[in-house]
Every structure is written in C-alpha cells, then in structure tokens.
From TrEMBL:
UniProt-listed InterPro entries: HD (IPR001356), Homeobox_CS (IPR017970), Homeodomain-like_sf (IPR009057), Lambda_DNA-bd_dom_sf (IPR010982), POU (IPR013847), POU_dom (IPR000327), POU_domain_TF (IPR050255)
Bias (Basic residues): 107-119
An annotated GO cellular component: nucleus
GO molecular function: DNA-binding transcription factor activity, RNA polymerase II-specific; RNA polymerase II cis-regulatory region sequence-specific DNA binding
SMART domains from the UniProt entry: HOX, POU
Domain Homeobox: residue ranges: 293-353
Protein name per its UniProtKB record: POU domain protein
POU-specific domain location: 200-277
Keywords from the UniProt entry: DNA-binding, Homeobox, Nucleus, Transcription, Transcription regulation
Organism: Ictalurus punctatus
Localization per record: Nucleus
UniProt DNA-binding region: 295-354
Length: 359
DNA sequence: ATGCATGAGTT
DNA sequence: ACTCATGCATA
C-alpha cells in the first residue's frame, strides 16, 4: 500500500529566501518568520475552476521534463526489508542510533508579525520551471578512527523530557533546545550579550557560516563522522542535550537548517568539539558498542511525474486546504497524508536558511 | 546529502 | 492543522 514510486531526482527547488537578515535586529525569528498565510480565498473559488487550475498547473509542470533523469536502477524503492542488519562494519560511520525519542529543542516564537509579503502570485506561467541545481557537493569522508565519543552505549536512555523553553520577552533568539525534564530552566539572563565567540545569541549568519565550516574541518581532522558526532553529544551530558542524528549534523555543516536551529546547535557542537579535541589529546580510546536493532520505517517515494505536479500546485498555492489536499492526493493517487506532509516539507524547505554571502 | 515522516508546541 | 526541529531510510 502506500505509494511507492521511486525515483527522486534531485531537484531542489528554488529557495527563495528572504532578502537579507539583519543581524542586528531584534529577534532572529523575525527573519524567517515572515511567512504569510494568505488565507484568502480559494475555498470555493477553486471549486469552480479547480479542475482547470489543477490541470493547468499539471500541464505546466509537465513541460519541464527535460532534465529529469531516470534511474537505471530500481524502479521502486520502497521496499526491502532487512531484518538482519548489523553488518555494516567497515565504514567509519557508525550507524545505528537507536533512540527514539524526539528530543525537543525548541524554539519558540511568538506571534505577531505583520505579514505582508509577496506571494507568488498565481501567474503560473513560468514560475513552475524554476529548478535549480543543487550545488552543494562535496564529500569527503575520510575514514575515521573513532575517538570521538566518549562513552558508548546508548541504548537505554530514556530520557525524557521535554522541555520547553523559554523565555520570550525579548526579541531575541533563543532557541534553546533540548529536552529536559521538566520545564524550567532558563534563567537566562540575557541581555547584554557580549561577545561573540563562544556564547550564543548571535544571529550573525556570517559567524554561523564560519563556524560550520570550521566545525566540519576540525571534525574531519579528528576523523570523526557526522554520525559519531551526533551520538557523542549525549556523552557531553549537557543539560538537556541528547544525541543528534547524522542528518542534523550534516545539515548543520551545510547550513541547511533554520537560522534559529543553527544558533541553538552551535554552542552544543562547539562544546563537543572542544571536548573531543581535549580527549584526543590525552587519550583516545573508547570502543563503541552498539547493538541495534530493528524497526524499519519505509520511506515513501513520490515519482517524478507526481512530484512535478505537486510542485506545480505548490507554485499556485503553497498552503492548500485540507479539501484541496485531498483532491490533489486523489488525483495523483497518493495518500492524503503523504501529500499534506509533502506540502509541509516544501514550505519548510523554502524557509531554510541558505544564506549565502550577503552581508 | 536529502526526501519523507513524526511529534511537541502553537495557533 | 500548522510550524519547527529532527530523524530514519535512501540515493
């Protein structure tokens, strides 16, 4: 069941990020917070031309099939179960992370923002064809010797907790994260921030960018993989900080996280880096043990044609109503929830940082 | 390195 | 039902 299609080409969508952040501004959230609901219409309007619009969008979307590449391999990617794994030794990447508990790093936000914004108008004419090529590449994965983590073992942890955070009041960035037993925390004094380097609270994109780069460099130098870093974070025992996935570390390094998220993670990774280097200096030895387990989740794969349609719809209306989503889902023969999540993720992507140089 | 997904916390 | 921070499963 589910739709399993395969193929996902790499299409990155155009990130239309915001113009520039003003680092010195008040909240950092304001930066990305600028979304606009645009609730306007479309409830019934669509009813009328819904079909027309959808078809039009689809038609337009269909046009751009030029660069789509098809994969020679595996037409359907969604299945295969491996019940027995545990044999991936060889690569330095530690893998299993286990742990299942959503940690909570939160950020918070408030709500007030006069949204006005541009909204991609619905002139679907050429907007659908924008595609961009991802340009990030790179890859180096030196094999690592593990030195990073501290203790090992990790399976049982149950931590729990959620914490939430914090303060608000000042328009400051805060995003503190982590889950921590029960609330509270935060005393924060805020204010006066001060300097810069090791503290947090500095919404300066350039600094983050620089740190991310340094971090990656040092990490590689230490011969530690992204996954190792994530797992090792738990050993730091920083209040509320548990481990993070390879994905998150990767995203941090490539700056593909929200600004708030970057700011929140920076001090944590910074702490790990220091600790790792210190540990390396004196001793390094810690076998890691992981056992892993089970539980496989199936990743739904949306086929290229459907994906194109979704992109077309998104260009017209990034926030379709529930009914709309249902209609689209039916049309594309996808589960409604899959479509809903796709839109959510699309919106999230659009908001991602990816600040380039500007400043 | 990324796509699809889950969940806490908001709205 | 949405946003955000994250993660598993994959390419």
């Amino acid at each position: 069941m589910m739709s399993m299609n395969s193929k996902q080409a790499f299409s990155m969508h155009p990130i239309l990020h915001e113009p520039k952040y003003t680092p010195l501004h008040s909240s950092s959230e304001a930066i990305r917070r600028a979304c606009l609901p645009t609730p306007s219409l479309q409830g019934n309007i669509f009813a009328g031309f819904d079909e027309t619009l959808l078809q039009r969008a689809e038609a337009l979307a269909a046009v751009d099939i030029v660069t789509q590449k098809s994969h020679p391999f595996k037409p359907d990617a969604t299945y295969h179960t491996m019940t027995t794994m545990t044999s991936m030794t060889g690569t330095p990447t530690s893998s299993p992370a286990h742990l299942h508990h959503p940690s909570v790093l939160t950020s918070h936000h408030h709500a007030h923002h006069p949204h006005h914004h541009h909204q991609p108008a619905q002139g679907l004419e050429g907007d659908l064809l924008d595609h961009l090529s991802p340009a990030i590449s790179l890859g180096g994965m030196p094999t690592a010797a593990d030195v990073a983590s501290g203790a090992s073992h990790a399976h049982s942890h149950m931590a729990a907790a959620i914490n939430h955070a914090q303060h608000h009041h000042h328009p400051h960035a805060q995003a503190v994260n982590v889950h921590h037993p029960h609330h509270a925390l935060a005393a924060h004094a805020s204010l006066a921030s001060a300097s810069a380097a090791s503290m947090d609270a500095e919404p300066d994109p350039r600094e983050l960018e620089a740190f991310a780069e340094r971090f990656k460099q040092r990490r590689i130098k230490l011969g530690v993989t992204q996954a190792d870093v994530g797992a090792a974070l738990a050993n730091l025992k920083i209040p509320g900080v548990g481990c993070l996935s390879q994905s998150t570390i990767c995203r941090f390094e490539s700056l593909t996280l929200s600004h708030n998220n970057m700011v929140a993670l920076k001090p944590i990774l910074e702490a790990w880096l220091e600790e790792a280097e210190r540990a390396q200096r004196e001793k390094m030895a810690k076998p890691e043990i992981f056992s892993s387990g089970d539980k496989k989740r199936k990743r739904t794969s949306i086929a290229a044609p459907e994906k194109r349609s979704l992109e077309a719809y998104f260009a017209v209306q990034p926030r379709p109503s529930s009914e709309k989503i249902a209609a689209i889902a039916e049309k594309l023969d996808l589960k409604k929830n899959v479509v809903r999540v796709w839109f959510c993720n699309q919106r999230q992507k659009q908001k991602r940082m990816k600040f380039s140089a500007t400043h």
